[in-house]
Structures are given as structure tokens and as C-alpha cells.
Amino acid sequence: MKVVRASVRFVYITSEIVFGCGKKELLRAPSRRMACCLRPLLSVEPTRGLVDEKLRIAVTNLNPKQEVTLYCLHHSESKDIWEAFGHYVSNEQGTLTVEKDSSVGGTYTGVESMALMWSLRPVQGSRAGLRLQKRDVLSPMIFHISVYNGHISQDFNQLTPLVTSVIERWYMAPGVQRVHVREKGVRGTFFIPPGPSPFPGVLDLWGGGGGLVEYRAALLASHGFLAFALEYITPGEMTAMNSTYFEVAYQILQEHPMVLRDRLALLGLSFGGTVALSLAAYSVKPRCCICISGNHLIPVRNTVSETIEELISLFHKAQIKDNQVIWRDLFLPIPTDLTKKVDVGQIRCPLLLIVGDDDQNCAALEFAEDMERITEKAGNRHLLKIFIYPGAGHLIEPPYTPHHRASNFMVTGKQKVILLWGGQTKPHAYAQEDSWEKILDFLRQHLCITVPKATL
Question: Is there a catalytic annotation at residue 359?
């Protein structure tokens, strides 16, 4: 196993543009002298932090009742440009505080302390179907936050800001180790927290898009869990691996010398949720299980390729609206025959379901209701906890990630389509923030640990 330690660089750059005042204006309006000639100051804290830490943004030294635009710019790893902005009016003292003052326009409105993150969108003219995901967790996401005079909605690159701050947002806290796993045919990455071991473990499973997705596992390790980001679908090819692959991965995690072997959790999103439910019901015995936007109608008992092919066989039956593929109704009505779905009544550990009621990729709400009926009948309802989020879609990720109502998706690694995930921006952002806290609390409760809040 090759160990790579995060190399954390701390960068904080502030550039300021000062607009001067004419001598006559100062003489005629001495009351404006201070506000007119002082430099606007932008405070963004923390200047470096984890992606799930809230920002505190304030602007001072403005004129009373001055109209300004707060603007956030991000260059993604794929060289695409993302932006978000809000329109504000300073108070009588020439200040504004984002967590207290309301945006009257822009990519968001109202009092929203983190909207410069979750309302990010590709700039006009970008490629269609983009989704912002972090690939290299060893480096930070860099954001330029600026203040512009007036209420601006376009052509920011042609204007000069009053002041700009550059901040870093990390998925990996200092001291977290990233370890490549190539063992017993299993591929993935361990993320090991700093501090004394052993740690509780989490097997982190992503969806049918395939590839190795590490950023959630890195963030879990930043909060004290030894997380195993598992790769189980290789883009561009189908795989013959079966349920045994996941059982071996679970065993590898369990046998890690820095893991508390009796304190393991399963965490899955979308198809990863299907895998997690199947494992917990039929093979392994985790301390707890979390399923986000999951589907319990296709048990992962055969090979993954057969399971995926079963899903893909329904592709041509999907509804297409505005060139977006909608998979939501493909499994409705839900069969009553337990042999045709995961018997979640056999899950003997606490089970958490995270559901968006505007999920357009799967009928997550109906699935959750059916799983509730199954556990009730099996006498295990007391083990089930369900959080349903109005207006949230399918891709419920760690907090402050931009909402993607639809994005590009490769079907079997060959055909690119735009899948409709669903959700509305503001309620989806709330769902991501609230559910992440619920997930961390659930893991802490059932893995029996007390972990101090991770900071940079």
C-alpha cells in the first residue's frame, strides 16, 4: 500500500482597489469623507477550511446604503468556470454581513450565509450538463470572492472589483492519510484520520457512474472515521465482479490494523445505496447502514454487470423531456414480492434513509415508504430512521456543493445522456446541509465515538 500524505498549502491573497474623492467634494460633504476615502474591506473567514465549514463574510468601509454585488468565482479542475453572486445594500454604517443581511437579487435571494457556494453555476456559454466534483482531494478548491460597486449580473471579467479575497476549501484536513488499495482484487482508497487509532470504519459506496470517487471519504476521515472509498465500476467497461467483491472489501476494511473491527458502517448513494442495502440484508453485519436516494428493487446478488445491465435494459423505456432522461418511474409500481427486491426486514442494524421528494432519477420517496412497510412487518421498524426533504433531488452530497438539477451521464460508459436528477436549488442546498449533520450524528451515535470538530 502506498501512503500519500496531503500537502497542505495555505494561501490568502487580498487585493484592494481604492476609488479616490475629489477635493471639492470632500469640502462640500465632510460627513462622507471617511466612507469615501477609506478602502472597502472584505472579511472572509475561515480563509482556509473544510468544505463543510460555514463561511463568515462581511464588508465594511462602504458608503451608507451603497449597492454592491458579492461575487464568487471558481475555476474547476476541468477548466470550467463557475460563478455565483448576490446583490446587497449596505446599512447606515456602510457595512454588510452576509449571515444577517438579505440578498435582493442574483443567483440567490434572502439571508443565506453559504449561497455563494451552493448557488454556483457555470458561466454563460459553458458546456452543457456540467457537474462540479472534486477529483484531486490532495489539493484545495480555490474561490475568489469579490465586491463590485453596484448591482451587477454579467460581464464581471470586464469590471474591476472594489476588493477581492482568495480562500481555500479542503476535503482533507491536515494529517489525513490517503492510501491506495489494491488487495485481493479490490480497488479503492483508504482515508485515515490523524490522531491515535483505532478508528471506526465506513465503507463509502458511490453510484452507477463508476470510477473512484474520493471526496466524501476524505471528508469523513477529516471527521474521525477511517473511510474506504471503493471503486467497483470501471468507466468504459462492464465488470464481472459480484457481491463477493463488496464482501471482500468490507473484510479488508474490517481487518485494517487501525480500524475498530466491530464498529463499521455502510454508506451508499444511489446505486451505492442499493449495494449497501443488499450487503446489510444478506451478507455482512455492520453496526449501522446509511442509504441516500437508494433503490431496493434490484438486489446485488448476481454480478455487478448483470445488475447494471438489468438497470440499463429499462433505459429505452425512460421518459425524455426537454432532452433530459427521467428514470424516476421505471420501477413503479413497486412489486409486493420480496424475492424481487432487497428484503430490508433482514437488516438487523440501525438504518438511515435520506430522501429527496423531488428525486427524478428514482422513486426514492415511494421506495422509502415500501421499506418502512417491510421493516414494520418484520418487526424492525424501530431500527429505521427516514429523513424526507421537500424540494430536494437525487444527488444529495456533502453540504454547500452546487445543486445540479441535470447533468451529463455515461450509460454503460458508451452513451452520453443528460440525466434529470431533480430538486430546486435552495431546498436542495438545505437538504445537503441538514442531512450531512444527520449522517455524522448517526455515525457517531452508532459507532460509539466522540470526535472533535475537524478544522484547518
Answer: yes
